[in-house]
What we know:
- By secondary structure, this protein is α/β, with parallel strands linked by helices.
- It has one domain (3-329).
- The protein is 42% helix and 8% strand.
- The chain has 12 helices and 6 strands.
- It has helices spanning 3-28, 47-57, 77-84, 99-116, 148-151, 155-164, 168-180, 226-242, 256-259, 264-275, 287-290, 304-315, and strands spanning 64-68, 89-93, 122-127, 246-251, 280-282, 327-329.
- A 4-stranded parallel beta sheet has the order 2-1-3-4, sandwiched between helices.
- Helix 3 (77-84) links the parallel strand 1 (64-68) and strand 2.
- Helix 3 (77-84) packs parallel to helix 12 and helix 4 (99-116) runs parallel beside helix 8.
- The radius of gyration is 22 Å and the shape is globular.
Amino acid sequence: MRPRPFALALLTAAAAVLAATVAANILLDPQRVFGTPLVGIDENANYRYLRLRQYQAAAGTVDALLFASSRGRAFAPDITAQSMGARAVGKFDVTAGMMTDHLPALQYVLRDKAARGERIKAVLLLLDVDSFGKLPATNVNIDSFLPPEESGEHPVRFWWRYLTVFQLRMWRGMLAERWRGQRAAQPIPSLVVAGFGPTQLRLASAMAVPPTVPRAKLLVATRPNLAAHVELVRQFAALCRGHGVALTVATTPMRADARSLYEPEDLRGVVERLSRVVPLWDFTEGDRIATNPDYWDDFSHFNGSVAGMMLVRMYGGPPSSVGDFGVLRGGP
């Protein structure tokens, strides 16, 4: 083949592959950034982007914020807002969320509210002690990139990534699940959800969470990123103080078998270290919750009943409903 026709054929083939890639990403929308998904599967969704867009859609009414990992999805927005004394709460509960996600989101919202002549009254920050200090997932994968409003990245670069990423395996898997009909589409929760739902998963044993096989305990205090994450908590708290925002910080509960993987004194030491930065509610202990499978959706995630008890403990309510669940550390 002569050089010119060969070059044209090569360019045409490359353009066709690029066009097909763009079309697949827009139509299937694996990360749920375009709002055009033909297949509603949320496991690959970029919740960092989605939560920001949900806030922007209701920004005029939002006067409270919740920051958390995916464990924060147990908190119903309307009940959380009521507990915090707010009109509406913007939820920034993102998959594998850490302070590297929460601080940029808070900075953006405070800037946005200032531009609107509005303010945020209260913030609830939930910290996962068991993952604290780990290498963050922020801006690592296609499903964890911060939106340009938070990262400062140029929007063209942000969107170019999502348009041109070649993810054949993911496309094929999404289509296979759709055609096999193995699961129904699960919509991403809107800003306001009415009430706490029933427990989604019951473990085989109704008596207690099974213990794990004994092995070497994991340590949090020795993680290399711990000091940096503690400093981000300090900055987060200072930012809230500087804007007159009432900040409540809490650690998330751990199921008994998950907690048994860690050295108890090590976890307590990390909580103590955090409490010297900002007063916090410690929910990492409490066997009544940790050993009861009715309170857990899976190994890591507690359900709405636990979230409700946490809100009562932190913001006030009938003491008999929560008992000794949750201890304020570092407070007055």
